[in-house]
Amino acid sequence: MCFSLVVLAALTACSSSDTATSVPATPLCKVATECDDGNACTTDLCDKSSGCAHTAKDCDDGDACTKDSCAPDTGCKHKALVCDDGVECTTDKCDPNSGCKVAIDNTACDDGDTCTTDKCDKAAGCTHTDKDCNDNDACTSDACAAATGCTHAAKDCDDGIACTLDKCDLVAGCKNTASPGSCDDGLSCTVDKCDPTSGCKSTPDAAACDDGNKCTADVCDKVASCVHDPVSCSDGDPCTDDKCIKASGCVSAKADCDDSVECTADICDKSGICQHNLTFGAKCGTGGTCDAAGKCGQCAPKCDTGSCNDGCGGFCPGSCNDGNACTDSDACNSGKCQGAQLNCDDANACTTDSCDQASGCKHANNASAGCNDGNPCTGNENCSSGPRTPYFGKFTAIVDVLAMRKIGLVPGGY
Fold first, then answer.
1. What pLDDT, in 10s, does the model give residues 376-400?
2. Secondary structure in 3-state letters for the chain
3. Global confidence as pTM
């Protein structure tokens, strides 16, 4: 009965803890074999004075790389610790004195790209961040090539404009500033400047060419510099005298056609030539009259005689008689009586028309002339000295021409 209680106590102590604890001795044992509790996790002893004692075994092997435990049937166990953290870029190992240790291995993260910084993170594993190739120099173009890494090529600040100074500032970068005097075209009348975006510009300044002469047009020519062309003062009027005064410019004065002759009307014609037309019959002097010679005389002209002359050497207007029976509508023209030629055509094919200056129109019969009386009932028409005879079949008759005209057989005329 006493032995069973000791065994039970030993089993309970071993299963509850791997740590060695003292179990109260049970008296009445003679040898240690009598105290065997069947538990591999206890050390059984017999104290003759106090009885059996069962001390829990200490399974600690002093190796931090094992996990120590005890099984009642087999005794102490030492299972190796697993130190793998599942991160590919760490080296996991165990130190017998301190246990698992994790070492970071950045080389395990090398992706072969020199433009990335490869690191191992205990939690995330390999990381690859782009390298910062900025060298903080505004005069370089920073880039990265996978094979060679960061590159810093010097910037080309040449803007291709000849009149700018091209340089690079470490902070601001390229600067292209106009170069003074670089755009001088050698012309005194141009304003020359450099545009940093488009290059040299030369602006003509006509004011720089002013020669103070109002009779010249002052122009700045991009090739010949100042040009002073004469100003044309012509106003297009041939009857003006156009000229230019250096101080004031163009002036135009009407042509002076006055011939100081009282009996002429002085005008300037379209060709710019002065005309002096006689003012015959005009009043002049003291109670005088302009005569045909352009002089102021006392002759009183008369134009009521039917003549084309006024008796004072002048001409009269109006109708007149030139004494020619072959003209009509006679009228005075510059002192001469002239008429329009009279039309003596009597529209008769059988007459020869003429005009005699003494007696006027004449119409002589022409028997040899051909004619047509316009009558389809007649034939073999001919002119005769007397009335014409129409042809009626085999019969002929002399009919009064006037009667034939009345009935429409003769179109008219004799």
1. 777 677 786 544 444 443 333 333 4
2. CHHHHHHHHHHHHHHHCCCCCCCCCECCCCCHHHHCCCCCCEEEEEECCCEEEEEECCCCCCCCCEEEEEECCCEEEEEECCCCCCCCCEEEEEECCCEEEEEECHHHHCCCCCCEEEEEECCCEEEEEECCCCCCCCCEEEEEECCCEEEEEECCCCCCCCCEEEEEECCCEEEEEECCCCCCCCCCCEEEEEECCCEEEEEECHHHHCCCCCCEEEEEECCCEEEEEECCCCCCCCCEEEEEECCCEEEEEECCCCCCCCCEEEEECCCCCEEEEECCCCEECCCEEECCCCCEECCCCCCCCCCCECCCCCECCCECCCCCCCEEEEEEECCEEEEEECCCCCCCCCEEEEEECCCEEEEEECCCCCCCCCCCCCCCCCCCCCCCCCEECCEECCCCHHHHHHHCCCCCCC
3. 0.32
